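Need tokens for this chain, all 303 residues.
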Amino acid sequence: MGEAVIEVRGLQKRYGAIEAVRGVDLRIEHGEVFALLGPNGAGKTTTVEILEGHRARSGGEVRVLGYDPERNPVALKQRLGIVLQRTGLEPYLTVAETIDMFRGYYPQPLPLDDVLAVVGLEEQRDQRVRRLSGGQQRRLDVAVGLAGDPTLLFLDEPTTGFDPTARRGAWAMIRNLRTLGKTVLLTTHYLDEAEVLADRVAIMVRGEIVAEDTPTGLIAAETETSIRFRLPEGATLPEEFGHHETTAGRVEIRTPDPTRVLHALTDWAIAAGIALEDLTVHRSSLEDVFLRLTGEEESKDAS
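Here are the structure tokens for all 303 residues:
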């Protein structure tokens, strides 16, 4: 194992009779992009705020870069970068002026040109903040978080509200953080984003971590493949296939042996003269794992 940037053991947070975080253990290594995922109310925001030093814990041990964040040490704050979901920046400053202002708060800031290169704002350096697009403003938020050359960067929902093109650009920016050797703790509701960017993922449900692994490892643990299609009106699938119908009107078969089942299914359809419309074979994704672990399969089927 490498050098730990974050070590958490038995973390607890209670609000009266409500236990928001229940015995969480975490270890995040230097240079990792680590995604903390969970539905609303799972406790991930509380956990992150404790790690940032913005909220006191009720129990457990926490070390961030070797410090207890609850003690609010200046030495720790100088090595943290925090990018909130919503930030307010002076609209009439230029991009360069904004970054330089925040660089001035730190003893050893990252050079301005390096920050601009990492977030992809070189061409906008003299543009005023109010003239930036939404995606460019989010890049500037990250630039502000990087200004002090932090060892650890907290990224909260970095692409919320982005169109697909802007999201891909933000992903490239987050990958660029690796070139600086940064450790990133990412929270996001986009499961494809976590699957693409994260070295490891932890999924929280009701204050507990219910799964932790690489995205590939979590997906590989799923043993079933989904076969989906539509049947013509009046057609009935034999019970031997063990199917169920989704709310969208599609038939779904889940099986650990998709080759055999697909062969039997198409043989039956050809013999019966039935077309299997919109036939797809779907390997599990991180989203499927997430939905299964958080008990949200029904909302997935309804979408």
